[in-house]
Amino acid sequence: MTDKTKNNSLNITAVDSSSLVDKVEQTLIDLLISEKLNPGDQIPKELELTEMLGVSRTVIREALNRLKTIGLIESTKRKGSTIKSPDLLFLLKKSLIPNILDQATLKDIFELRLVIEIGMSDLIYNRATPEDIAELEQIVATEPDSSKEVLFDVDHEIKFHGKLYQISGNHTLIDFQTILLPAFRYVYDSGMIKSPDHDSKWVSHQDLVKILKDGNANKFRNAMRKHLDRHFKGYFK
Amino acid sequence: MTDKTKNNSLNITAVDSSSLVDKVEQTLIDLLISEKLNPGDQIPKELELTEMLGVSRTVIREALNRLKTIGLIESTKRKGSTIKSPDLLFLLKKSLIPNILDQATLKDIFELRLVIEIGMSDLIYNRATPEDIAELEQIVATEPDSSKEVLFDVDHEIKFHGKLYQISGNHTLIDFQTILLPAFRYVYDSGMIKSPDHDSKWVSHQDLVKILKDGNANKFRNAMRKHLDRHFKGYFK
DNA sequence: TTATTGGATTATGTCATACATAATGCGTTT
DNA sequence: AAACGCATTATGTATGACATAATCCAATAA
Known about the structure:
Strand content of chain A: under 5%
Oligomer: homodimer
Largest sheet of chain A: 3 strands, antiparallel
Distance between the termini of chain A: 63 Å
Protein name (chains A, B): FadR family transcriptional regulator
Order of helices and strands of chain A: HEHHEEHHHHHHHHH
InterPro entries (chains A, B): GntR_C (IPR011711), TF_FadR/GntR_C (IPR008920), Tscrpt_reg_HTH_GntR (IPR000524), WH-like_DNA-bd_sf (IPR036388), WH_DNA-bd_sf (IPR036390)
CATH topology of the largest domain in chain A: Four Helix Bundle (Hemerythrin (Met), subunit A)
Largest interface: A-B, 61 and 60 residues
CATH superfamily of the largest domain in chain A: GntR ligand-binding domain-like
Domain HTH gntR-type (chains A, B): 18-86
Number of strands of chain A: 3
Radius of gyration of chain A: 26 Å
Structural class of chain A: mainly alpha
Keywords (chains A, B): DNA-binding, Transcription, Transcription regulation
Helix content of chain A: 55-70%
CATH class of the largest domain in chain A: Mainly Alpha
GO molecular function (chains A, B): DNA binding; DNA-binding transcription factor activity
């Protein structure tokens, strides 16, 4: 009965509630960084780590398993674990489950798409081959008639813009798009984005291809901005 | 001693070499998706899963541990594991250790930065407050004299552009920048990027701020493109 | 009655041990 | 010299035990 009121006592030093595995994980990551290890290098065996860090093999394994999950190491039977150059996007793919993401993040991601597609213009303009342009022309040729204000064709939208990503030639970007696709589709389907209301300055897919073919980098970039304008309108009024 | 030569037998059906944990992990992820679970919902206890899937608790725990690592669930004592809205960028932060990434990925990431900063122009232009602009002016005022072709000041570069990300107001983007910063710095330091050679059309930070203040969205976007031109030059010659 | 206390309970966290399995190397056999 | 079998090694899986934090609930004291 003396002073069991721990909660009221001051001068608490904020004990870390992290689990053992958390600590070991961080220790290992620090080790990777400080030791300047390169992909292919080996890290100590589980049992060695057990002794080095003074915890059970269970904890070591759970920590290693985490590194494996984020792609920093890979393990084979007899050989042990080796450093690996992580595939950054592989991770996103696993954790990006649209119906679990909150609205704010989804909105951020959709906005990120706009940002990327505009900024990507310069890559596209500089790297598009005649074959790429031909393919784009092919795609718009089979396009549903946009003048009729028909239902927004998500699949076609994705087809055209997907080709643009591919032209960009940046693999991280390409992966990025395929990963974010479920989120895009989810946003489209959920009605967060209003259907198109083409005003006089509207730039169609067809216009874009024409400018890509005969215009210049600046024109193409600004055209892309106008093409995406209806989405921006949701944000800036 | 009879027929131990299993290896030579034909009609092999490509046995999957994935471990038990791999399978359980995928099973659980599929479960999350198909069950349309929302953040906060509980998933079965470890022992229940043990029975449901017919594997040991070890395997269940390792699989759960992976989901925990990619931020899909979190676990507390007594309560069990619950669904969580994953922080997409949190993972990248952990796995992005520049000296482990390969050159190609580093180049992609740096290129991605250019793409984002150009595309971000519209967000910046539409969301910059007078206070933001004042702060930018403050930053360029303390800028080392760029006319002297001095050493490229990475810290200052990051300070200015960091503020731009902040103005964009997109939290995913902001996180993205802080995460990619180590990679940027690494690229700068490693000499993959050549030092600036300002040509006649060079747009300085100071110019950018002026245009942001008195120009329009198109001008600002194109100015940003010119500002980053020296980096692009490395790619398109 | 109300608030506090102190188990009892529950599910995750950690430990220890044993065995399974795949990869590798080495020596024996033919 | 090539093929086979065996021992070795380190990760993968299973099991049982106990530690620990969170929670509930009943007993107790004000």
